[in-house]
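Review form for a predicted model. The reviewer records the input and the model, then writes brief findings.
Reviewer: anonymous (R2)
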Amino acid sequence: MGSDRFNDLERGLPRISRSMLMRRLRSLEDDGLLNRTINRETSSPRYRLTQAGSELFDVVKGLGDWGHKWVNHDFEPKDLDPDLLLWDMHRRINVDQLPDERVVAQFDLYGTHEERYWLVFEKPSPSVCYKDPELEVDVIINADTLTLHRVWMGRDDFVAAIRRGNIVLDGPREIVRALPDWFALSLFAGIPSAV
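Model under review:
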């Protein structure tokens, strides 16, 4: 999904310990599914799928499709993880839809979780911030946490949630109108529930 640095992988797997992640990465490398390289400037490792690893994508995606269809048909408050949600959202931004100038969106979540996040929409690499990036905010998104999760996973419609008032966008009209097109939604959003 585009994460190739240890810290990014760790953020995307919030319930895994650092030592377990290191063991898993070593195991995948030993099995020929990952290549580990060291960035000479930063001395930090980067992990890239080998051809064998890339060919597993369809298998792993198929398991996720099955889970979304048969198991993950509804969400409970205990299932929600807004940190992971915003991390996932930032990885699935349609960069080609972004304007040339940077746009900073502040997410104010309420309901089951009350949190504040920032997404910095900029080419070529959007970013998510868990602390105030101290940049001028262009648009504020007030969203019910459960609704935002449901929209992201394809169980609710973004525009319908806005019409109901579960998601409120406050900012310049051109940004508010364009914002829904900036998100590609979850990789599994197109899989209907069988339950």
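Findings: Residues 57-70 form the longest helix (14 residues).
Further findings: The chain has two domains: 6-55, 77-182.
Recommendation: see findings above.
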